[in-house]
Design brief:
The protein is built from three helices and two strands. By secondary structure, the protein is mainly alpha-helical. The protein has a domain of 143 residues: Orthogonal Bundle (Helix Hairpins), CATH 1.10.287. Strands 1-2 form a two-stranded antiparallel ribbon. α1 runs antiparallel to α2 and α1 runs parallel beside α3. The longest helix has 99 residues. Keywords: Coiled coil.
Length: 231
């Protein structure tokens, strides 16, 4: 996108703007073909800035897509974990009910209550199950880290591109204002020159009419002074 300006420094001037200032700075009437070419060059620069804005917009869209994918993966992971917990609780619920109810009998006639000991054994997960679960978590974490790294890189590129775009937009706006003022001033100078030329031509025309009028009067006077033919 060209060279960038640091904060606090004056915006850079394009070659077309510098040429236009040089042409108009000498006070002479500029060649309109040259001025038109320089204006077209400035418009091309504005068009390039518009294309850069579109590229930044596309990059921002990619960042949003990556963020959306990462959010979806997190929700999917959380959902899978919650489903596993719910399934485990559902599987243990019959055992819990059986633990509270099996082998508990009451002899109402003899008012004698016999409570048998719990016969439910709790099975702990095997080492292989723990290993498989840990491996799955590591793979999922690695995938999330990759998405996070990619999103961070895209965000960094977006910030750099946005900074460059702001510099270009500021420079283009400055160049446009300078070019507009210089064009307006050049047309004012040209208008003043044409007005001055018109005034000079009108004054010369008036003098010529005055001279012709005097010559006409002289011709009339000379004609009246000619001797009359008596024949």
């Amino acid at each position: 996108m060209g060279s960038r300006q640091n904060g606090g420094q004056a915006p850079r001037r394009s070659q077309s703007s510098a040429e236009l200032e040089q042409i108009l700075g000498n006070g002479e009437t500029p060649d309109m073909n040259v001025v038109t070419g320089l204006v077209q060059s400035l418009m091309t620069s504005v068009q390039k800035n518009q294309e850069a804005r579109e590229r930044v917009g596309n990059m921002a869209t990619k960042i949003l897509e990556v963020e959306s994918e990462r959010t979806r993966l997190l929700q999917e992971y959380i959902g899978d974990t919650g489903e596993n917990v719910d399934a485990s609780m559902e599987n243990n619920q019959p055992q819990h009910d059986q633990e509270n109810n099996v082998n508990k009998s009451t002899n109402l006639e003899n008012s004698h209550v016999t409570v048998y000991g719990d016969q439910i054994s709790t099975e702990e997960p095997s080492e292989n199950d723990l290993y498989q679960e840990n491996l799955a978590l590591k793979i999922e974490l690695q995938r999330l880290e990759e998405y996070d790294t990619k999103a961070t890189q895209l965000i960094g590129q977006y910030e750099v591109a946005l900074t460059h775009l702001r510099d270009d937009a500021r420079c283009s706006a400055t160049e446009y204002e300078v070019a507009k003022k210089q064009l307006i001033n050049s047309y004012k100078v040209r208008l003043d020159e044409e007005q001055r030329t018109y005034d000079e031509l009108k004054a010369g025309h008036d003098r010529l009419l005055f001279a012709l009028k005097g010559l006409n009067e002289s011709l009339k006077e000379a004609r009246n002074n000619l001797p009359q033919n008596t024949n």
